[in-house]
Automatic annotation (TrEMBL):
Residues 96-206 form the CRAL-TRIO domain. InterPro entries: CRAL-TRIO_dom, CRAL-TRIO_dom_sf, CRAL/TRIO_N_dom, CRAL/TRIO_N_dom_sf. This is CRAL-TRIO domain-containing protein. Pfam families: CRAL_TRIO. It comes from Culex quinquefasciatus. One of its GO terms (cellular component) is membrane. SMART domains: CRAL_TRIO_N. SUPFAM superfamilies: CRAL/TRIO domain, CRAL/TRIO N-terminal domain. GO terms for molecular function: phosphatidylinositol bisphosphate binding.
Length: 206
């Protein structure tokens, strides 16, 4: 039985109600308990978090449609099993993630007036000479997993600015064409993050 209490500002309470169908405490608690019970009784799921924050990630991602939230959890768990190289070894204090973080390619700038978390990405900050596709994706997945632990991010979503100044062909070649679809699917359908806007500047011509 969930004991969750909503402690965010009225702005996020209103956003949750108007955009995510998170009508009130009773609706929220009922959905949390339904989803937790579904996980516990699902024979296909062996190991999965069932704490309130984790469940709310997916309920808010799917606008409190419990069945769809459950399907999203299955997709997320399947992705972690299928692509362990992108989800395991995410200690930020150990290389290669520590080295990537030193270069600060992803910076969280705060929240805008609409409650969206603003993320600034300097694409050229990734060292194309030493990094691999897997290490970059591991860093991105770690950042998304960490950010979506914040309820403000779950409700308000994110607004992304990508600065492509100085991006090299060497960097572009790190990513295999055959896996672009997988990466896009992860970002838009699997990871429980509401991407509200993406802006890109200084896109290369190649």
């Amino acid at each position: 039985m969930s004991t969750y209490k909503f402690t965010l500002s009225e702005q996020f309470r209103t956003l949750a109600k108007e955009e995510l169908r998170e009508e009130d405490d009773a609706v929220r608690l009922d959905a949390i308990n339904q989803l937790r019970d579904w996980i516990v009784k699902n024979p296909a799921i062996k190991h999965c978090r069932t704490d309130d924050v984790f469940l709310l990630k997916f309920l808010r991602f799917r606008k409190f449609a419990v069945h769809q939230a459950g399907e999203s959890i299955e997709r997320y768990l399947a992705a972690r099993q299928k692509m362990p190289q992108w989800f395991q070894g995410t200690d930020p204090n150990a290389d290669p993630l520590a080295s990537i973080m030193d270069d600060c390619p992803i910076t969280v700038l705060g929240r805008d007036d609409a409650g969206r978390t603003v993320i600034f990405i300097r694409v050229a900050s990734y060292d194309a000479e030493t990094l691999t596709q897997d290490s970059i994706m591991r860093y991105v997945m770690m950042m998304l997993d960490t950010l979506t632990e914040q309820e403000e991010v779950q409700i308000g979503g994110v607004r992304i600015w990508m600065d492509c100044t100085g991006i090299s062909m060497k960097f572009v070649s790190l990513f295999h064409l055959s896996e672009y679809a997988t990466m896009i699917d992860l970002m838009t359908k699997t990871m429980p993050v509401r991407i509200r806007q993406i802006h890109s500047v200084k896109l290369p011509k190649f």
